[in-house]
Predict the 3D structure of the following.
Amino acid sequence: MKNLFDWLDHRSGYRKITHEALFENIPGGSRWRYVWGSTLTFTLVVQIITGLALWAAYSPSSQTAWESIFYIQNNMWCGWLLRGIHHYTAQAMNILLVLHLMQVLIDGAYKAPREINFWFGLVLLLLVLGLSLTGYLLPWDQKGFWATKVATNIAAITPFIGPQVQRIIVGGSDYGHHTLTRFFALHAGVLPGAIVALVVGHIYLFRRHGITAKQPLRQPDAAFWPDQVLKDAVACLAVLAAVLFLVLKNHGAELGPPADPSDSFSAARPEWYFLFLFQFLKYFPGGTEAIGAIYIPGLILGVIFLMPYFGKWKLGHRFNLGFIYCLLAGASLLTWLAIAEDRGKPDIIAAVKETERSAERVKELAESPTGIPATGAVTLLRNDPYTQGPKLFAKNCASCHRFDGHDGTGRPVSDPETASDLKGFASRQWLTGLLTPEKIISVHYFGGTKFKDGRMAKFVGKKLTAPSADLEKVIAAISAEAGLKTQPASDPDMIKVGTTAFKDTFNCAECHQFHSKDEDATAPDLTGYGSREWLISMISNPKHDRFYGEKNDRMPAFGEEKILDPASLGLLADWLRGEWYEATKN
Amino acid sequence: MSENQNKTGRRGFFKEALALAIGAIAGVVPAIVALATFLDPLRRQSASNNGGSFVRISSLNAVPNDALPHKFPVVADRTDAWNKFPNVPIGGVYLRRTAEKTVEAFNAVCPHAGGFIDYVPSKKCFSCPLHNSQFALDGTISDPKSPSPRGMDSLPVEIRGDEIWVKFQNFRAGIREKIAA
């Protein structure tokens, strides 16, 4: 064995290198304050290892990026753990960078002859921030997509070269396949390559000038190995433990709903470590963004780069420390302001809730027997009544109608309720309300419409004052037309009796048609009432003779007037009817 | 050696061991997780490995009763990681109608190295364009110089009414035995 090592040493000289690496002298002995550089090297190695494994399963294109990460997260061995470690180690790296920078500044390790190494460190800091920025887009979820859109638009306001820089980064004028391939090349190739090269230089320069020991020295000098290595190893383990704690607590990294450029996303916020910049930009009115996004950050970086020169004077060193403390305090304040500002906003809260709902929903759809189509998971949400129904309702119906008192998405509506509340439309419960004297004239039914004083309301007010078993059967018969999934099927005898009572007992057929032709009918045809076809036709054109005809009260003909396309009409009808894919619960 | 030195030596060794152990734990945990995800394909079973399933290939009328091979695509549902593709080509078979209601089926993949075998009408034989393996019409090796370790992989056929159904499976290449891939 010894011979083999001798042979190897003769060829490589590894003993000398190892000796130099391990037995570096540390004046004053090992200390906990020196661990930050090692923890950063450790996190870099963790990111490279986990990043390579993620790379082996990731597919950068706008139809496969989210999908491949979904697969890593939910289908691959330890995939959620792998992605979680990568995600939270990236966050830990940003904190460790600040700690390392602070230690270097406080201990005066940036002063001559260590200027170049300080600059290496600053460039490394910027490159790691670049990794965070590029990595955030790669899952191609709503959050990453919109946050990156903002970031690249900020790049575009750089004087002179901005638009060109943006085009090069984005890979064209629009966000798509090439945005992902480029961000991925930066994230997994260019930036890590540059970082590894600079880290080698950083460590070489650090060794060349030796450690800047904190004065006064508390103990006799010692070698790097084993005392400092032990402290470094404990610190690295602590970082890993913190990362694993966060991964387990949050069940891995979050994966939002897939990016959809056509869907608004008011909860778009950068990751927490960029929130201060996000908040800072709010204070620069239109046309002056470049000052907040480029000039001031550039100036601050310029000052930090020049710190080794200021540090030559005692006062300069104090200025440097004061500057960095102010900077940290300012960034913390801005971060806090950004969080506090969002905390109370109902719109943000609703948008965050909606995003969480979509994220859960797309998971359910992706795991359905039909799986993810080649067009990508975003199609699953676009064709899903459960997702689109509330949005379509909020946009097109909620200015008059309500859904359980809100606009369909859970947001309150400020306009008065001037048409019926459609939650449970055509169900027995809904119809029972309609056929109750005090309810039909309430705003939940006809109260806000001109039908409040119409024949139907008068009929209900006069004739349906007492509870009646026959009325229940009529309701069951009409409701059965809808064939709602949420309603248990009523028995055929009951429906038969109800249909007869419709005509004979209550004389409904005087105005309504119900499985019989009547040219003189003046009220909506109840044949197929609440069925998909009935609803689509009704929303398409309520002025049609089959529905309200000339009596129609303000409701637009959404189909006839081409306000909604056939697909949207179908989604809206399905959602109102409660028809959407539901995973069978085991 | 004085007692003091001995103590320092022992403490030094303890520190060294501890530094190594803690460093190793910190390094190994992420590496194991990365390796686990990387090795995920090992636990996935292929459709062939599950015994394959009968797939409708064509109608009986589409295969002339001439005892010659005719190439057909195998169209079935395919799962490719996260995507599910309904009705896409997943392979090819040669069908050979040897009697009115009798059909033979061969997987078109060469058992040598997985090339797609051609049928050469002028020589009335199968030939792999990659390493020149030659097979007779019944799928057996016809040229002893062929590098293929076994004849073409035959597949079970069922005639259902006037439709030809084949139990489609792929087999491991490069070995003598016919083992599902």
Notes: Strands of chain B lie at 53-59, 69-80, 83-99, 102-107, 118-120, 125-127, 134-135, 154-155, 157-160, 163-168. Chain B has two domains: 3-42, 53-168.
